What we know:
By secondary structure, the chain is an alpha+beta fold. It has helices at residues 16-19, 27-43, 47-70, 194-203, 209-214, 216-230, 233-249; strands at 98-100, 105-108, 112-118, 130-135, 138-146, 149-155, 162-172, 175-182. The strands form 2 sheets. The protein has a 4-stranded mixed sheet, with no helix packed on it. It has a 4-stranded antiparallel sheet with strand order 2-3-8-7, with no helix packed on it. The longest helix has 24 residues, at 47-70. The chain starts with 15 loop residues before the first helix and ends in a 14-residue tail after the last helix.
Amino acid sequence: MYSLSETTNPPKRFTSSDLFAIPAMDAKELALDLEDLRLLLTSSKRPAVQQWIKSKIEEIEKKIASQKEKQPAPVPHSNDSSPAPDANKSATPSSLPTVKVTNYGWDESDKFVKVYITLQGVHNANPSTIQHTFSNFGYDILISDFSGKNYVMTMKGLRDEIVPESSQIKQKQDMLLVMMKKKTEGKKWEQLTKLEYDEKQKRKPKFDDKAMGDDPQASLMNMMKQMYEEGDDELKRTIRKAWHEGQNKRNTADMPLPSLDDM
């Protein structure tokens, strides 16, 4: 038979503090407990019970405050809704270098004058970045932020007048096509700008009909002399060659050709 002293230790006695000890829990659970305790406080009548509930309320409030102190401070937000600058974002068009494109080709039909501007990859450019305006005698084109640059194409002083509202530009493979509607259909421009046209007209040999009638030989000589003086090296070589061949063929003629020294 076992004596009483050999039995297990007497059971531990629990106090009210042990019964209502607040285990570790998150802030949400603590808030719910706090709400219930406050309800109990309003319904309790005995002072001792009220005092005990108040102590538990204070305990929970301290736990909640302690958890809030351990939480990281929120990052303040500016009232400015604009996003923070992105270091990888491309620069604004106004800060990019500007390239003026002056090389082009052109041709004409009865209704249109067409200018071909070669620009590698321009067919991939966003159409919204290509701005253009036409006037009666020219155009202005701006391509913004294309391959890290801005491109400007300007044409002034066209040979003849165009119809701005009927003119347009088109994106082609590595090329920008400018189509300008002629105001006078069927008229040949011969040159793209008025300056080029006037210069060409000045270089044309001048014919004097009266002189041709009085002395055709002298008039022809004057025309050849003008062509020789105003022509390039290739033209001068051609004239010299033709002149020598003409002299050789006319050695027996009654009126020999003047020598090249007179040219």
